[in-house]
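Sample 1 of the test manifest.
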Amino acid sequence: MSREVEEDEDRLRQRRLEEVLEVKSLRRIISAYLNYPEAAEEDVQRYERSFRKLPAAHKALLSHYPSKFKRLRRCISVNSYFIFNMLQAFEPPLDMSLDVDICGDPVLENVPYDHPTGERKACSPFASTSGRMRCSKQDQALLQEGSNILCNSITGLTTDEEMQSAHLDKIPPGNFAGTIVKHDEQDEHGGNDVTGSNGNVTSSSHNWLDPSLQLNVPLVDVDKVRCIIRNIVRDWAAEGKNERDQCYKPILEELDALFPNRCKERSPPTCLVPGAGLGRLALEISCLGFVSQGNEFSYYMMICSSFILNHTQTVGQWTIYPWIHSNCNSLSDGDQLRPVLIPDILPASAGITEGFSMCGGDFVEVYNDPCQVGVWDAVVTCFFIDTAHNIIEYIEIISTILKEGGVWINLGPLLYHFADMHGHEDEMSIELSLEDVKKAALHYGFEFTKEKTIETTYTTNPRSMMQNRYHAAFWTMRKIKAATT
Ligand SMILES: C[S@@+](CC[C@H](N)C(=O)[O-])C[C@H]1O[C@@H](n2cnc3c(N)ncnc32)[C@H](O)[C@@H]1O
C-alpha cells in the first residue's frame, strides 16, 4: 500500500474516531437530561425512607410531609416536562444513530468514554461553530464505561392535560420560524455555518431520543442538569435580575460608556463573550448595538440556551421549580417549592443587533486561530477566566484577538476549575493570584482603565439562608500594544 493511501486511511480513521467520541459524549449528556426525573424521584424516595424511620410522635409533628412529597413529585414532573420539550427541539449536529461500538476496529473499540474528542468541527443547532463541542474536562473525568439501556428515562413526564390542570403554560415549543440568531454562512468572526455546511448530520426525527441509545449515567451528570436549572434562573428569570444586575449590568454600562458612538458607525463594534453560559449577557450586549458572539463549549449549556433563544414564543412560557433539589437552608416549604417562570423576556423581540451568534467550542481551540487575530473590539469575560487550565493562555489569546485599542472587560473570582482535579493525570492547572493575573495582562500589552471589586452571588437561591458571596474582580483593560515577546 502506498504511503499516501496509508495516510488517507489514517486520517479517515482519526475522523471516524473523533465522530464516535463526540456522539458518545453527546449521548451521555442527553442521557443525563433524560435521567433527571428518575434521579429526582430517587431523592424523594430517600426523603420518604427517612421520614418512615421517625418515631410516631415525631411523624405526627410533620403530618404535612406526605403531601410535601407529592408536591415535590409534581414539581419534578414539571421540570421534566420542560427538559423533554427542550430535548425535542434540539437538533443534534451529529448522526446520533452512529454505531459507536464499531466492531472490528481495535482502536475505536478500546476508546473509553472519557477520551477527549478530537479537533473536528461540530455545532449546536443555532450556533456558528469552529471548535469541538464537549462536556467539560470535569464532565469527561466522570464518564463511565457501559451503555446500559435506560428504559424508563422519561417516565414521570407530565402530560399536557396535567400541565393544564396545574395552571401552567403548556405551549409546546413547535418549530420557531427561523432562528433569531443571525450569522453569515462563513462569518468573519470564526464560525462555519450551522448544520449541513460542514458535513454534520442533523437528525430530523427524534430517534436519537430512543431509549436504546441512552446511557445509564452517573448521578454527578444529573447534578449538572440541576446546575443548568439554576443557571436558567440566573439568565432567564425575573428572580435572577438581582444577580444579573450585580454581574451583567456593570459590564453593559462599561460597554455603553466605552463605545458611545456605536450606533452612528457604519459597522457596529464587535464583542466576544467566551464562556457565555446560557447566553443572556451575549444577548444583552447584542441589544446594546454590538455584533455579539457568545462562545460556549458545554453541550449542557448549548442545548438549553438554544432552546430559550430560538424556541421560546412567549414571556413566561415555561415553569420550572429550580430550588426543589435542596432541603437545606430553606425558610419554608413554600420557598423551596416555589415556581419560577421563564423566560422573563422574549429573546426574539428583545432588540438584538444583526450578527448575534453563539459559537460552540473550546475557547482556546476556536479563537487561537490566525483568522481571529485583531478581529474584536471588545472581549467580555464573566465568571470565565478561572475555567482555564492555563489562565496565561486565555490572556494571551484575548490580547491577540483584540484590535489594538480594543477592550477586555472582566468580572469574576479566581475559583480555578481544575484546582481540585486530583488524581487526573495531565490535568494541568495553573492557579495564579490576582496580582499575577494582572502582571500577565500587562505583559500581553494591556493597561488598566478601571479596576474595582464587585460583591455578587452566582446561581444562588435568593431566598436561601445561605448566600455565598464573591468579592469578584472587575476590570477594564485596553490593549495598547501587542505582547512584548
Ligand atoms: C462559571 S460559568 C459562567 C457562565 C456565564 N458567563 C455567567 O456568568 O453566567 C463558565 C462557563 O464557561 C464555559 N467554559 C468553560 N471552559 C470553557 C472553554 N474552554 N471554552 C468555552 N467555554 C468554556 C462553561 O461551560 C460555563 O458555561
